[in-house]
């Protein structure tokens, strides 16, 4: 199954994409994660784009569409995606929808909705493990048992650079002005993202007819 998960920052689309992908053996492609790999030097792309990408992400803007499509294409070609994929963070505007159409069809789109206030609350509390990538939230859940320490591997928990309120407001503006408009291009199911992680997961599984 070829899926797109759409939702504002903190809606839980990354968490849900990971869970659904693991359960149904799809690959999970987060373009934000891929760009963080480029910005940290873990993923190489042609041209000297590392610094430029870091700057765009830090202020909450969008990275150029051509580069995004190049990254997406290379991920989709991997054998992990043979069974299907979930795109998380792509497409983010109409131009990216058009580019995606040339690479792959999409079976279903899921929109996960939360209010801007909830987004600010969740993103303000989001912490990620530097070592294993696990995500926690000091304002909501899952809360780390010991502040600043990953429950899973003991690594250090850090806030993402673009999770400060100024960059987040910019990211929400881009979301409402550009990303939401991609929903006009697809049939989509709307899911209430303010429920618990477990409830949102089962609502998604049900709407996709996967259970
Ligand atoms: P995310 O982890 O999805 O919140 O993405 C973090 C940042 O990566 C965004 O604020 C953008 O700067 C950049 N980014 C992620 N996906 C895309 C995309 N499809 N197009 C352009 N920029 C993106």
Please explain how this structure is put together.
This protein is of the alpha/beta class and 211 residues long. 43% of the residues lie in helices and 16% in strands. It is built from eight helices and eight strands. The strands form two sheets. Strands 2-3-1-4-8 form a five-stranded parallel β-sheet, with helices on both faces. Strands 6-5-7 form a three-stranded antiparallel β-sheet. The two termini are 13 Å apart. The mean pLDDT is 95. The structure holds adenosine monophosphate.
Helix-strand blueprint:
Layout: E1 2-6, H1 13-24, E2 27-30, H2 31-40, H3 50-59, H4 65-76, E3 85-88, H5 94-103, E4 108-113, H6 116-125, E5 126-129, E6 135-137, E7 157-158, H7 165-179, E8 188-192, H8 197-207
Parallel strand pairs: 1-3, 1-4, 2-3, 4-8
Antiparallel strand pairs: 5-6, 5-7
Bound molecules: adenosine monophosphate (AMP).
Adenosine monophosphate binds next to helix 2 and helix 3.
Describe this protein with a few key phrases:
three-stranded antiparallel sheet; binds adenosine monophosphate; five-stranded parallel sheet; 211 residues; alpha/beta; 43% helix
What best-fitting shape do the alpha-carbon axes yield? Answer: globular
Q: Helical proportion?
A: 40-55%
Structural class comes to: alpha/beta
- Rounded mean pLDDT score: 95
- Summarize the helix and strand pattern as letters: EHEHHHEHEHEEEHEH
Oligomerization status of the protein chains: single chain
Terminal CA distance reads 13 Å
* Percentage of β-strand residues: 15-25%
The residue ranges in which pLDDT falls below 50 over 5 or more consecutive positions are: none
List all distinct small molecules, including ions and cofactors, that are bound in this structure.
adenosine monophosphate
Q: Largest sheet, if any? A: 5 strands, parallel
Strand order, largest beta sheet: 2-3-1-4-8
- What is the number of helices? 8
Please give the number of β-strands. Answer: 8
Radius of gyration: 16 Å
């Amino acid at each position: 199954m070829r899926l797109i998960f759409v939702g504002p920052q903190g809606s839980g689309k990354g968490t849900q994409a990971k869970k659904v992908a693991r359960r149904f053996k799809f690959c999970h492609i987060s373009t934000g994660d891929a760009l963080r790999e480029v910005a940290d030097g873990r993923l190489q792309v042609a041209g000297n784009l590392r610094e430029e990408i870091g700057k765009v992400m830090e202020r909450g803007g969008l990275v150029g569409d051509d580069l995004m499509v190049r990254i997406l294409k290379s991920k989709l070609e991997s054998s992990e995606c043979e069974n299907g994929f979930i795109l998380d963070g792509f497409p983010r505007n109409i131009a990216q929808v058009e580019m995606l159409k040339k690479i792959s069809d999409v079976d279903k789109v899921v929109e996960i909705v939360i209010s801007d206030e909830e987004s600010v609350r969740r993103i303000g509390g989001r912490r990620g493990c530097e070592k294993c990538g696990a995500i926690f939230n000091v304002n909501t859940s899952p809360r780390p048992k010991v502040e600043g320490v990953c429950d899973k591997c003991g690594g250090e928990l850090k806030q993402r650079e673009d999770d400060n309120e100024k960059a987040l407001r910019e990211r929400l503006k881009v979301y409402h002005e550009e990303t939401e408009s991609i929903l006009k291009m697809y049939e989509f199911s709307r899911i209430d993202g303010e429920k618990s992680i477990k409830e949102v997961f089962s609502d998604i599984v049900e709407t996709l007819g996967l259970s």
